[in-house]
Design brief:
single chain, about 130 residues, mainly beta, seven-stranded mixed beta sheet, four-stranded antiparallel beta sheet, globular
């Protein structure tokens, strides 16, 4: 059974930090790109960051570049999203998702992440940033 389980969300003041984790199982971790998306109430799902075990540096959306850092631990089949300098507009449910590895290069080329390209999704974790 494929599972992506997020953790680490919570309530934090503006300027604070949180680290999200996503533990994956049931599929070949190294054959997939793993991404973080977020969705705020009334808004479309937005791609935040994406990492590939077989390729270079993580991809970041412009809205989080310089504040968020994505990393992975292949031994644990887990990815992380370190979120610093949080802003109220970062408030959303954060999801991790897995896509075929080629999606990573496409995201880099198009400078966007397309939710329809992702096969597996976690249940989400709430991040709330107070002003």
């Amino acid at each position: 059974e494929v599972q992506l389980v997020e953790s680490g969300g919570g309530l934090v003041q503006a300027g604070g930090s949180l680290r999200l984790s996503c533990a994956a199982s049931g599929f070949t971790f190294n054959d997939h790109a793993i991404g973080w998306f977020r969705q705020a109430p009334g808004k479309e799902r937005e791609g935040v960051s994406l990492i590939s075990s077989s390729d270079g540096s993580p991809y970041y959306a412009a809205s989080v570049q310089g504040r968020f850092t994505m990393s992975e631990d292949n031994a644990k089949n887990t990815v992380y999203l370190q979120m610093n300098s949080l802003k109220p507009e970062d408030t959303a449910v954060y999801y991790c998702a897995a896509a075929p590895d080629y999606v990573y290069k496409r995201a880099q080329a198009m400078d966007t992440m397309l939710p329809d390209e992702y096969d597996y999704w976690g249940q989400g974790t709430q991040v709330t940033v107070s002003s």
